[in-house]
Amino acid sequence: MGNIVAVVGRPNVGKSTFYNRMLGERQAIIDDISGVTRDRQYGVSNWNGKTFTIIDTGGFVESSDDVFEKAIRSQVRIAIEEADVILFMVDVTTGITDLDESVANLLRRSDKKVFLVVNKVDNQQRMLEANEFWSLGFDDTYFLSSLTGSGTGDLLDEVVQHIDDSDNLKTDLPKFAIVGQPNVGKSSLVNALLGEDRNIVTDIAGTTRDSIHTKYNKFGKEFYIIDTAGIRKKSRVHENLEFYSVMRAIRAMEEADVCILMIDAQTGIEAQDMSIFRIAIKRNKGIVLLVNKWDLVAKETNTARDFEKDLRNRLAPFNDIPIIFVSALEKQRIFKSIDAALQVHENRNRKIKTSELNEVMQDAIERYKPPVHRGKFITIKYVTQLPTYYPAFAFFCNHPKHVKEPYKNYLENQLRKNFNFSGVPIGIFLRQK
Fold it and tell me: Mean pLDDT throughout 26-43?
């Protein structure tokens, strides 16, 4: 059991509004610019202390009518295979449509946990009309309004009962996920590292059928590679390759400590790479960026230095990550990328002595004090590292609420300057002393 929740259903039933509410932020999905929804298909949500990735399948459908139903069905099939919980959303104002019926048929035949979510139920009359949806035959049917938010809490309370956000593979060794878009060269990288003699770990209890954990043990280095690239190719995947590969990337990242994100030097970093990158940050994973197929580009004018500078601008504000130019096919610098991932893993587990932390940070705070807020002087007395699985720091001060984002960024930059946290998201928390 994992923690991927997919929202399926036909368009305009309110998936995006619901999804925004899940993420607790008004992401501007409702713009008309084409491609806007496309960048917002997945995010990380937290409820009752459980963290899960929520996927809005709506962004993956081109909306001409003939491909449309086919695309939705293919998405529902992928969701059935890849998600852990499925929220099937329908709209009380239109009643049950033929497409709802056919999606319901697919879902009823699956053994996945399905919640039927009847949306736009925001008055007494609609509450009565919503009852017709019981006829679709789902025990877990919830009436809600994603616009006002009524009913979403009850649904989430129930959803998180079916979510397990603990790691599958219990090991002290670093776990690296190799992620990226289709055809970027993930398989070539895995083959270059492991050769063809993969000792695939499938007999570990809890290893899911859809990611292969392979142990690497050469040259005194030991770690697991979580590889989703070489998984059995499914016949119907090609119709929805993008959606499928995103599901796979998220699945692999869930289990990893460090994500090795591969991009193609010829296309540069694209919207989908950025989305994967943002999820990795939100889940506090370590990150190494590999620019693959550099041998095909290097002959042209752009130097690695310019390319890298441009990349860091795109990745800002979090651009303190190793960027390595490789050719998986030519085996150029692939071991350098592993060294970088091992270093990032070490950085992610770095614990700094409180005395050293205060010495360095008090000095930095002295040099640049928090701005006065409404005539109140803000003093930060003490800093300590929190016992979390990724680096997080608590700064104790007299008015924590008045310390604004720019100053938090300053504190983070000072931590990065003085201690090696390259490739690792850092948490900064201000607490009342």
Answer: 44
DSSP conformation class of 303: -
Q: Give yes or no for a contact between 323 and 311, defined as CB atoms under 8 angstroms apart.
A: yes
What are the pLDDT digits (tens) for 283-306?
899 999 999 988 888 666 668 888
Contact 201, 214 (CB under 8 A): yes
The amino acid that residue 217 corresponds to is N
Tokens for 305, please give them. 């230095």
Question: Which tokens in the block code for residue 48?
Answer: 């009752």
Q: What is the DSSP letter of 35?
A: T
Element containing residue 20 per DSSP (H, E): helix 15-23
3-state secondary structure of 96: coil
Cα–Cα distance between 346 and 114 in angstroms, integer? 40
Helix (H, G, I), strand (E, B) or coil at 142: strand
The DSSP output letter for 57 is G
Non-local CB neighbours of 336 within 8 Å, separated by 6+ positions: 324, 326
What DSSP designation does 180 have? E
Digit-coded pLDDT (tens) for 320-367: 999 999 988 888 888 899 999 999 999 999 999 999 999 999 999 999
Exposed/middle/buried for 426, CB within 10 Å: 0-12, 13-18, 19+? buried
- Strands (E) in 294-379, as ranges, are 323-325
Give the integer Cα–Cα distance in Å for 368 and 28. 35
Which helix (H) or strand (E) covers residue 177, if one does?
A: strand 175-180
Q: Of 139, 156, 96, 176, which Cα lies nearest the Cα of 340?
A: 176
**Which SS3 state, helix, strand or coil, does residue 410 take?**
helix
CA dihedral 265, 267, 269, 272 (to 10 degrees): -130
Cα-Cα-Cα-Cα dihedral sign, residues 180, 278, 171, 245: negative
Phi and psi at 254, nearest 5°, equal: -50, -40
The answer to whether the predicted template modeling score (pTM) of the entire model surpasses 0.90 is: no
Which structure tokens are listed for 310?
A: 């441009």
Instruction: Yes or no: say if 275 and 193 are a contact pair by the CB < 8 Å rule.
Output: no
Residues 12/99, Cβ–Cβ less than 8 Å:
no
Among residues 291, 318, 317, the alpha carbon closest in space to that of 306 is found at 291
